[in-house]
Amino acid sequence: MTEIICLSVTPEASKVFEELRKIKPDSTSFSKSLRLIVEDYIKNKSNPILIPKKESLALNTKIEEWRKEINEMEVEDFIKLQKKIAQINNLVNKRVEKCLR
Fold first, then answer.
1. DSSP letter (8 states) at residue 54
2. How many angstroms separate the CA atoms of 92 and 1, rounded?
3. Could you tell me which residues come within 8 angstroms of residue 73 by beta carbon, excluding any fewer than 6 positions away?
4. What local confidence, expressed as pLDDT, does residue 49 receive?
5. Are 39 and 31 within 8 A, CB to CB?
6. CA-to-CA distance for 88 and 93, rounded, in angstroms?
7. pTM (2 d.p.)
């Protein structure tokens, strides 16, 4: 028996689905096209839903790893990092003042 699934389609997904409609053969249904693409992705790539947790960078992590992470992170994550660094910097400055007394 065929199951019907309703999807909430974002504007980004809508663009992708429209591209699929343009390139799929007329004799192949949209559902079948989507299924074949998903099957191919699952066979050839890692599961996009079960992304493994990345280990956090620590103070003793090599600077090369920090550099790589900073250069590759998304803009939103980079902004969060900058805010966190500012907070840590304030804490360090307070500790320095305390140690110098």
1. P
2. 64
3. 81
4. 61
5. no
6. 9
7. 0.44
Task: Give residue for tokens 């096209």.
Answer: 33
Where the chain has pLDDT below 50, the residues are none
CA distance 88 to 94: 10
What is the token pair recorded at 42? 């699952």
What would the two tokens of residue 90 be? 């304030």
- Rounded distance between C-alpha atoms, residue 52 and residue 48, angstroms: 9
Domain ranges across the chain: 11-44, 63-100
How many angstroms separate the CA atoms of 96 and 91, rounded?
Answer: 9
**What one-letter code names the amino acid at 78?**
F
* Interatomic CA distance for residues 45 and 89, integer angstroms: 41
| Three-class SS state of 58 | coil
Q: In Å, what is the CA distance from 59 to each residue of 62, 66, 69, 75? A: 8, 10, 14, 22
Q: Do residues 36 and 23 make contact, with C-beta atoms less than 8 angstroms apart? A: no
